[in-house]
Amino acid sequence: MLSDDERRRIEPLLTYIDGIDSSGRVGLGDAIRDILAKSPKRCFTVTQMRDALIDAGFDFSRYTSNPLSSISTTLKRFKDNEVEMMEINEVDSYRWIGKKRSGKKKLEQHEIDSIISYLSDRSAENEEGEETENN
Q: I need a labelling partner for 71 at 20 to 30 A (CA). Which of 51, 57, 61, 104 fits?
C-alpha cells in the first residue's frame, strides 16, 4: 500500500497512463471528447469528426472497421449530459455540452524518469528489507 506522499508522487504518471491504451495511443472516445470539448459551440458531423481526428494525428490503423462507423458508434454511446445530438439538414451532428475538460497533462520525459527512478529506489529498498528479514 502506498503512503499519501508516495501516491502524490506517482499520481501524475498514473493519470497520464490512464488516458492511453497499451500501445501508448489515446483511445477513440477520449480523442473525440477532447475535440468536442475544445469547440463546445461547434457541431460536428461524423465526417467532420473523422477529419478533425485525422488533423489531430489520431491513428486509425488498428481499427478493422470503417473509421466513420467507429466514430458514429462512439458518438452515440456518450452520455446525454456530455454530448448533444441534433439533426442539421437531415444529418446527425454532435456537440459538447459536458463539463469543461481540464485535459490530461502531458508529462515531460524528465518527470517520467524521476517517477520511475523513485519507484525503482523504493523497490530496491523493499528487496533489501526482505533479504535482511530472511537472513
A: 104
The answer to whether 117 and 107 have CB atoms below 8 angstroms apart is no
Cα dihedral sign for 124, 129, 134, 135? positive
pTM: 0.58
Give the chain's residues under pLDDT 50.
18, 21-23
Q: Do 73 and 50 touch, CB atoms closer than 8 A? A: no
Closest CA to 48 of 81, 88, 13: 88
What is the grid cell recorded at 130? 526482505
d(CA 135, CA 116): 29
Domains of the chain: 4-134 (1.10.10.10)
Distance CA 94, CA 87 (A): 9
Predicted confidence at residue 72, as pLDDT, reads 94
- Asked whether the beta carbons of 118 and 16 are under 8 A apart, the reply is no
* Distance separating alpha carbons of residues 74 and 113, to the nearest angstrom: 34
Instruction: State the pLDDT at residue 23.
Output: 46
DSSP 99: P
